[in-house]
## 1
Amino acid sequence: MSLLQALAYFAREAAVSLARSLRVSLLAIVTIAVSLFLAGVLFLASRNLAETVAGWRAEARFVVYLAPEIAGEDRERLLASFAGAPWVLGFEQVDAEEAAERFGRTFPSLAELVGEGGHGRLPASIEARLRPATAAEATLYREWLDGMRGAPGVEAVDDDRDWIAQVETALALVRALGVALTAVLIGASIFTISSVVRFTALLYREEIAVMRLVGATEFFIRGPFYFEGLLQGLLGAALALGALFALHFSLKPQLAESIVASAIASRFFSPGEIALLAAFGAAAGLAGAVLSLGREGLPDTRPTPP
């Protein structure tokens, strides 16, 4: 029998065994599906959020809010300080009217709060794009920043990079927890598949005994069980991918309306990532089968010589 014929036999026997013990196998399939689904959710959310945060960082602004009564010379001094700082990539002045117009475009439902007759008025400001200061510039940058905060006519200073750094720290923590949780769930899946395959092997102990009596090799005996674990992993991965696609499809109508949905669900798996998730499920199933049928895994039903 050629290798291709043997593989076809393994796949056929694995499918038959899976159909016969569907209730037991379903436990392993659902376990690995839940594990891969949670891993996929964490991966998609962290990947999309990381891309969103990278976009935020690229558009981050350093904003100096000006007091309404700021003197002309104080404003000119601030502009000169921006123009002379080597870490300033560019800056612009934003008056109160333009600030209110921007606010209205970003938050249409709240535009009346800062419009004519509203409850408040947005201050004029100076917005700048900054590059990260080098190690040699660190002291000068801190002095420049402190000077901005204490300058006459300055009401407040806001650096978008501060809260973006906090988001990145939280994202790194979520990723670490996600990796730990995924490892635990995948370990549980492998253990479940191992138990199911071991149980199936015990059910087929008489067939295994006959195969050994006629001289079948251990590879030929174990092959169908390996394929069964692999098939369970693939079915679990397919179930997880279906659930992930359904979740992404349900969130898709909200992408344009919800900042949160747009940040965590803007992009689905690429074809390569789908193949990788399926391969990961198959590998987990195969690992469970190999673990189950270790060196002494199969029941030894060979007759004892006299």
## 2
Amino acid sequence: MSKPFHYGGQAVIEGVMMRGRDRVAISVRQPDGKLSIITQPLAGVSRGRLRETPVARGLITLGETLILGTRALLHSAQIAAAEEGEKISPFVLGGTVAVSLGFAVALFFVVPLVATRYLIEPYINSSLLSVVLEGFIRIGIFIAYLRLIAFMPDIRRVFAYHGAEHKTVNAYEAGMPLEVESVRNYPTAHVRCGTSFLVIVLVIAIFLFALMDVLLGRPPLWLRTLSRIALIPVIGAVSYEIMKFGAVHAKNTAVRILLAPGLLLQSMTTREPDDSQIEAAISALNGVIDVEEAADPHTDTPPADDEELAPLAPS
């Protein structure tokens, strides 16, 4: 008997994407009020043994989140705007991912380092204290960024769909029927949320950057910048394992205390959804559950009914 799969996903423009064991489903509310639902099989790397290998699975998840998430956002934007459903160019997809990744690295890793170097380090002599203060600046920028984008009406709707996604997964994991009336009663927070993952990333970064600076002997700015960027995949992989451990042991009191900051911060990235948004999340989750339950449980090959997603780019 195969071990249970933890379903999850993300909010998109006027809809929700859900990832299953073998495929992904995207449910988007069209301008006419109807739901557009597509399901597609995942690329092989997302279903192979590496996906269950510690550390490696974290790297795969990062790449998967970037590629699938961006593709789902571009698809949902087309549907929500009632545009022709043309195939998304790999160049558009790759360029969008590259720009998004570059912006995130610059804002959350390079800017805090430069700010610490020129605004704080002239007044302190401790390398460790410098890294800790850099970490607090990074966390402050992250929180300020979330507060700023929350003023945008379109983002507030995305956050509501994010809440609908969490409610739906919470209801499913509680064994409740996937109906609006049942799902509505569940919380908008979830221990496996990407927001919680990012909180773990910000904390782990402080420890790894401090260790690196100690080993390198408080290196010059350019070397510290390179080390920050080079360590991002390592931080992501370690953070994924911590989040996965926390999700498995979420009922443990000590673990719940450690998870509390991430759950608290989700109040900034989720909103209470309306019934139509919950309906979109339910249809996305059903989109992967129905197909996967119909497939042979003893094979790793999903039924081929749609176009296969492009292979993941290296993370």
